[in-house]
Amino acid sequence: MRKKYTKFFIVAVASCLCFVIFFSRLTDVERTQRDLATIPSAATDTSSKPTAVLINTTKKKTKTKSVTPNELPPLTISVKFRNDIPKNGAFWNRKLHSLLRQFDSGNNETHREPHKKFHCQPESLELLQTNIQDIHSYPPLYGDFLKGMECRDPPVLHDQPGKCASDEIFLLFAIKSIPKHFERRQAVRETWGREGLYENGLQVRTVFLLGRSSADDPSLDKIISFEAQQFKDLLVWDFHDTFYNLTLKEHVFFKWMLDRCPQVSFIFKGDDDVFANTQAILNHLKSLDPAQASTLYTGQIISDATPLRDPKIKYYVPQSFYEGPYPPYAGGGGFLFSGNLLPSLYHVSFYIPFYPIDDVYNGMSFKAIGITPTKHDGFKTFDIREQDRENPCVHKDLLLVHQRNPQQTMRLWRNMHSSMLTC
Ligand SMILES: *[C@@H]1O[C@H](CO)[C@@H](O)[C@H](O)[C@H]1NC(C)=O
Ligand SMILES: *[C@@H]1O[C@H](CO)[C@@H](O)[C@H](O)[C@H]1NC(C)=O
Ligand SMILES: *[C@@H]1O[C@H](CO)[C@@H](O)[C@H](O)[C@H]1NC(C)=O
């Protein structure tokens, strides 16, 4: 009797177990299928024309979750970059080499959470004077820059969390603007920055990068809020939008990209007063081979530059602040780079102190991650001959000109796309 019950009991338990295992397997399979179904791919996307995907499916990034600073990929900082920036008494040089030493001796903790190294406690000029003896001869705005050099995490005021949600984005325009440039932004939206599907199914998106106007300016906060809601293309952070804060603007933009648009193939970063030839840019990007595409950093390349020492000019850099050559860099009016460099660029920026000139800082960051810029003659950041500036035919083969006001931009765009145009 007892034996029979025990046997029955064992059989019953065993079948229950089998059932449980079987069903949990089933739901696993279902779950995987569901997950797969939510990953948009060129093959399942029926809404658009066949996509000319530059990076083929074996290399294509699946729609990944955002990359948080804690999940940054391992970083190598190039020897060339380290060696070309002299170790000398200038403030920035000292700061850089101190960060590089931290990087080399870094324990796992600092490598995983590099952002924790920075403590935003605006320093007083008196304190800074211990490190920069002639700080009182610096232009006043330089003082603001120095005081804020450690502040890297301003709050986001307007976000666009859905910007890259639905499709695989081929090109993202990231346009540096300032609050009061409404008209420039509108001209960009209506012309070369138009979002949507272009030839060959390439998706293009646009964001404008903004800080805040100064306390002395009339407040534009309400109008900016309206604009952000209306057009869904403004990214606004709570910092003072000045020339010397452009490196900060870039840093927060990279962070935003990793969070919201980590899968974008290419990024165009530029000013709001340039004229970009979107179709020519797309054609160029599409023509790249996979190796070029994955390491792209191109534009008008400025080589062999050194700091300018005339205090009256915008790009002035005091001798006691930085001493050394500049790396080759793409003119900040507009340049292109590959989206898969974003994690490394963001990561390395924790080991390169902010610099008052953002395109020079870019050059340093790319060099530090081992990327050399390639020049493209279609980028005219110093503009073209005066007599050609309204000529749509001349612009057909160019990728970018600087600079055009909103009216010129509108006219040029209209004429370039006119069916009556014969070049
Ligand atoms: C994708 O690229 C890899 C190498 O980059 C190549 O071996 C493969 O054949 C390509 N696949 C397709 C479908 O083009
Ligand atoms: C860092 O982490 C790796 C594995 O995650 C480990 O092998 C290594 O010993 C760690 N290094 C230090 C300095 O803690
Ligand atoms: C950058 O923004 C911060 C935060 O608003 C501000 O304190 C600082 O003065 C700004 N720096 C410059 C150089 O304008």
UniProtKB/TrEMBL annotation:
InterPro entries: Glyco_trans_31 (IPR002659). Its main location: Golgi. GO terms for molecular function: N-acetyllactosaminide beta-1,3-N-acetylglucosaminyltransferase activity; protein N-acetylglucosaminyltransferase activity. Its cofactor is Mn(2+). It is a single-pass type II membrane protein. Gene3D superfamilies: 3.90.550.50. Keywords: Glycoprotein, Glycosyltransferase, Golgi apparatus, Manganese, Membrane, Signal-anchor, Transferase, Transmembrane, Transmembrane helix. GO terms for biological process: poly-N-acetyllactosamine biosynthetic process; protein O-linked glycosylation. Pfam families: Galactosyl_T. It is found in: Golgi apparatus membrane. One of its GO terms (cellular component) is Golgi membrane. Its EC number is 2.4.1.-. It is an enzyme of class 2 (transferase). Pathway: Protein modification; protein glycosylation. It catalyses: a beta-D-galactosyl-(1->4)-N-acetyl-beta-D-glucosaminyl derivative + UDP-N-acetyl-alpha-D-glucosamine = an N-acetyl-beta-D-glucosaminyl-(1->3)-beta-D-galactosyl-(1->4)-N-acetyl-beta-D-glucosaminyl derivative + UDP + H(+). Belongs to the glycosyltransferase 31 family. Interacts with B3GNT8; this interaction greatly increases B3GNT2 catalytic activity, independently of B3GNT8 enzymatic activity. This is Hexosyltransferase.
